[in-house]
Design brief:
With 305 residues, the chain is α+β, with helices and mostly antiparallel strands. Helix content is 36%, strand content 14%. The protein has helices at 8-14, 18-29, 77-89, 96-103, 107-119, 184-194, 237-254, 262-273, 282-293, 300-304, and strands at residues 45-47, 53-55, 60-62, 132-140, 162-169, 174-179, 200-203, 218-221, 230-231, 234-235. The longest helix has 18 residues, at 237-254.
């Protein structure tokens, strides 16, 4: 067994029931003791039965679920922890059908649960990428090879496909987000918002990146049309490796992802590349995931809206 991970059996030994999972979650989310999610105070808290607490300041009852993606869920907490473990360790993701079988709930509940867990993935790191940044777009939708020849779209002609823009720091973090179109204005705005001025940017020859040379970046391009993939350290291979994993997950595990929910799926995959990096111990990755659940409640109504 690798020293950087724990098995499913070991996870069950750590969290055999709801009480063990509750103690674990409270220790991570409330390291200094219970705090009221309404007023934010932790001085006048009374412990009640069944994991409930009463804030004597604002007269509110709460649990460790309150104010997190687990709020108002009837699924036991040790099943939530196991679901987090699966999301963290499944490189290509886990489907709602598979999760339903794993933890003994309905597929509908598993779908909602996964949506809430994806809501907890990332979205809080506003620091900009720096150094050498590889940037590329991916087009998510039906495979062109399955279409009639006259209906196939080119790489930069999405034709009903969703577009995801990705930026990968050489040897570091990854940021990705869905965009409406891959024109120069959209690409430049997204890059300026997420990349430190003075950084070196590597892209392919797509004309949407042409304006970067007029901004505060050093812009290098690689010509895929000419069969060029690496030239003197200039390449987009790292970000394209991200697309390989994302597309294998979408086509192989989920089969179809609606554009409405695409942002959450993208955040799940980027979380595994950043906080969920396999070089970190599984428990550390799990702790990072738990930290992200706070303040991100997602209701079923909001999810299907």
């Amino acid at each position: 067994m690798s020293k950087s991970t724990i098995s499913t059996f070991q996870l069950f030994e750590r969290f055999p029931d709801q009480e063990a999972a509750r103690a674990y979650l409270e220790g991570l989310l409330w390291p200094n003791g219970p705090r009221c999610p309404v007023c934010g105070l932790g001085e006048r808290i009374t412990t009640r039965k069944g994991g409930f607490y009463r804030c004597n300041q604002c007269q509110e009852d709460f649990t460790v679920r309150t104010g997190t993606v687990m709020e108002r869920s009837h699924i036991p907490l040790h099943k939530w922890v196991y679901a987090m473990y699966l999301v963290v360790t499944a490189r290509k993701g886990i489907s709602s059908m598979q999760l339903a079988k794993e933890i003994g709930i309905t597929q509908k509940s598993a779908w909602f649960m996964l949506g809430r867990l994806r809501e907890a993935c990332g979205g809080t790191d506003f620091s900009k990428l720096r150094g050498i940044i590889e940037i590329d777009e991916a087009y998510i939708g039906g495979k062109e090879g399955n279409k009639h020849a006259h209906k196939r779209a080119g790489k930069h002609d999405p034709d009903n496909k969703a577009i995801v823009l990705g930026m990968r720091e050489r040897g570091g973090r990854t940021k990705a987000l869905p965009i409406e179109k891959a024109d120069g204005a959209t690409l430049e705005f997204a890059i300026i918002d997420r990349v430190e001025p003075g950084s070196t940017i590597h892209t392919d020859e797509w004309r949407g990146y042409a304006g970067l040379k007029y901004l505060d970046f050093k812009h290098e391009t690689i010509s895929h049309a000419a069969g060029e993939y690496v030239r003197d350290g200039v390449t987009t291979n790292s970000i394209e490796a991200v697309w390989a994993v994302l597309k294998r997950g979408i086509y192989g595990t989920f089969h179809h992802v609606s554009e409405k929910h695409l942002d959450r799926y993208v955040r799940e995959f980027t979380f595994r590349l950043n906080e969920g990096n396999v070089e970190r111990h599984t428990l550390q990755r799990l702790e990072s995931f738990v930290d992200g659940t706070a303040g991100k409640r997602l209701t079923y109504k909001a999810m299907i809206h």
